[in-house]
């Protein structure tokens, strides 16, 4: 992350001052002549091995010479972190080669000016109510700043406390805003550690010599007040916390913060607007996170969480990629073409038709891995929003709960399901075979499949999507990957038709005659028209809530605009 972290202090004599600063240097450095602060070979004093970071002393005499020419006056003890002779600290990220340098001021004069301005603004005009807490400010020229101000107890200070701030300066405004929760959470830990340590020192000093009673009994003179306070205004943060390795600890904390901030968010190039499948995935993930957090905070949430586990598995199951099918035990279906070859052309056509129409698909087998691989392949025919799956169950689940249901062989099918035209049953039984012959498919050699359904409608006319898919599957010149991309394009084409029909019929409320004209324009009429219309209506249930809400909001806004 191209950012810089600094600890700032409001001195009673000099005003806002930068105490400690940590910056990241990415290899290779753009200017070899500015490679000051490189660790001296063989200088291993103060070496500390951390988690992916190596901390060393930093020889930075040139740096101190550059900064001393910029400072308006020699800082007092309260305005200085490291002694003038201290070389500073360097941590090296072994994975990326990034160096994290810490000293009182940045290496470069340009950065010194930026940090100085951020320091002054964080401890003067840019403060939140109560003067403690986070705030964001900045501009394109001087960078953007995440600042967190806080107080440290001091028995000798005016008001018994001193004012500090931790600022993180970066040029990327969006990145800094997106990192707000992460930065706030970890900076609070650092601040709480400093405050709790200083509070212990404050309580011990007050126990020895209470300052409040002493000040009330002393003579106050405006003429000599600055001289009376000057001796107490120079206490350093090390003195307030009695922490001998304070600056080394802050260096480790700031270095880790920069390293973690740079690795937690990554950029991803998206071509065009997000698809409906992407929107549905985001919505389901959000709902699952809210559901988990809700039950974790409730009493007896453990048993209820177990009851909700099947639904969570439903939501996570559609995330399984076809490339991960090899992780399942036993033989498995690898693609739609493989499933078509095993079942046969007619049985595959019947099964795929039921899937596209939204009917419940039930598989009974003693091999859960085989069922799950079949569902993974068949679910690619549908939008993500239409998928509700129970991979393997010891009892029958109703169709409103799932449209893909895996059962063990001994589970009976209810009579109303067996006689329903809106379901299809695939029974998988073992063959009496001794082994698999050379060149023979393992699934064909070990299992036999029986498909049954009470549906009497012909499945060889439509829908159009299935007809085009079968043409691609039967073309052996097309690889499995090409067929997968063909199916993806077909799904996007028909999902766009679903959006048009939803907008026209559900949102605008048009009549049946107008809807029929739209279906003709969409190419859903003609041979297989009944199946096409049924597919479109079923796929409407898979539209994301975001899309539906957007349409309804746009319609309401259009209705209000004429009156306005």
TrEMBL record:
Which domain of life does the protein's organism represent? Answer: Eukaryota
**Single Gene Ontology BP term?**
negative regulation of transcription by RNA polymerase II
Where's the UDENN FLCN/SMCR8-type domain? 80-544
| Keywords noted in UniProt | Cell projection, Cytoplasm, Cytoskeleton, GTPase activation, Lysosome, Membrane, Nucleus
- Gene Ontology CC terms, in alphabetical order: centrosome; cilium; cytosol; lysosomal membrane; nucleus; spindle
- Biased composition, Basic and acidic residues: where in the chain? 42-51
Give an example GO molecular function.
Answer: GTPase activator activity
What InterPro entries is this protein classified in? FLCN/SMCR8_DENN (IPR037521), FLCN_DENN_C_sf (IPR044886), Folliculin (IPR021713), Folliculin/SMCR8_longin (IPR037520), Folliculin_DENN (IPR032035)
Is Membrane a UniProt keyword of this protein? yes
Record region (Disordered): 24-63
* Localization in the cell: Cell projection, Cilium; Cytoplasm, Cytoskeleton, Microtubule organizing center, Centrosome; Cytoplasm, Cytoskeleton, Spindle; Cytoplasm, Cytosol
Keyword Nucleus assigned to the entry: answer is yes
Q: Which family does it belong to?
A: Belongs to the folliculin family.
Among PANTHER family, the record links this protein to:
FOLLICULIN (PTHR31441:SF2), FOLLICULIN FAMILY MEMBER (PTHR31441)
What protein am I looking at?
Folliculin
């Amino acid at each position: 992350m191209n950012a810089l972290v600094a600890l700032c202090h409001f001195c009673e004599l000099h005003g806002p001052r930068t105490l400690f600063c940590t910056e990241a240097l990415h290899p290779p450095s753009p200017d070899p002549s500015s490679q000051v602060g490189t660790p001296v070979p063989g200088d291993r004093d103060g070496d500390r091995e951390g988690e992916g970071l190596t901390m060393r002393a930093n020889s930075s005499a040139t740096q101190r010479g550059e900064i001393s020419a910029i400072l308006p006056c020699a800082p007092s003890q309260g305005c200085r972190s490291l002694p003038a002779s201290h070389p500073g600290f360097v941590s090296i990220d072994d994975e990326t080669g990034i160096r994290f340098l810490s000293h009182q001021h940045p290496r470069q004069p340009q950065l010194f000016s930026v940090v100085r301005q951020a320091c002054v603004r964080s401890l003067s005009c840019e403060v939140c109510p109560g003067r403690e807490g986070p705030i964001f400010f900045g501009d394109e020229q001087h960078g953007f700043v995440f600042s967190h101000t806080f107080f440290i107890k001091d028995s000798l200070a005016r008001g018994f406390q001193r004012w500090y701030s931790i600022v993180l300066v970066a040029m990327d405004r969006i990145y800094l805003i997106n990192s707000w929760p992460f930065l706030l959470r970890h900076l609070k830990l650092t601040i709480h550690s400093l405050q709790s340590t200083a509070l212990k020192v404050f309580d011990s000093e007050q126990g020895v010599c209470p300052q409040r009673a002493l000040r009330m009994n002393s003579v106050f003179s405006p003429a000599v007040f600055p001289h009376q306070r000057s001796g107490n205004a120079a206490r350093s943060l090390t003195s307030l916390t009695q922490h001998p390795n304070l600056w080394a600890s802050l260096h480790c904390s700031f270095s880790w913060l920069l390293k973690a901030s740079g690795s937690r968010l990554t950029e991803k190039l998206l071509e065009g607007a997000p698809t409906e499948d992407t929107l549905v995935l985001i919505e389901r993930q959000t709902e699952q996170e809210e559901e988990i957090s809700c039950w974790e905070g409730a009493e007896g949430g453990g048993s209820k969480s177990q009851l909700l586990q099947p639904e969570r598995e439903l939501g996570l199951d559609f995330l399984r990629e076809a490339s991960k099918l090899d992780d399942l035990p036993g033989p498995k279906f690898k693609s739609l073409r493989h499933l078509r070859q095993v079942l046969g052309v007619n049985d595959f056509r019947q099964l795929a038709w039921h899937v596209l129409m939204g009917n419940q698909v039930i598989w009974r087998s003693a091999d859960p891995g085989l069922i799950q691989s079949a569902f993974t392949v068949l679910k690619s025919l549908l939008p993500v929003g239409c998928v509700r799956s129970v991979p393997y169950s010891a009892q029958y689940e109703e169709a409103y709960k799932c449209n893909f249901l895996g059962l063990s062989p001994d589970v009976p099918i209810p009579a109303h399901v067996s006689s329903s035209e809106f379901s299809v049953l695939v029974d998988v039984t073992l063959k009496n075979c001794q082994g698999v012959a050379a060149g023979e498919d393992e699934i064909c050699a070990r299992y036999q499949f029986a498909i049954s359904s009470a549906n009497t409608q012909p499945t060889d006319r439509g829908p159009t999507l299935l007809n085009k898919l079968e043409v691609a599957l039967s073309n052996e010149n097309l690889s499995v990957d090409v067929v997968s991309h063909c199916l993806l394009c077909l799904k996007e084409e028909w999902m766009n038709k679903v959006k048009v029909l939803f907008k026209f019929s559900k949102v605008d409320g048009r009549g049946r005659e107008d809807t029929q004209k739209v279906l003709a324009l969409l190419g859903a009429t003609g041979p297989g028209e009944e199946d096409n219309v049924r597919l479109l209506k079923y796929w409407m249930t898979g539209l994301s809530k975001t899309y539906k809400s957007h349409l309804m909001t746009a319609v309401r806004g259009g209705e209000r605009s004429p009156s306005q």
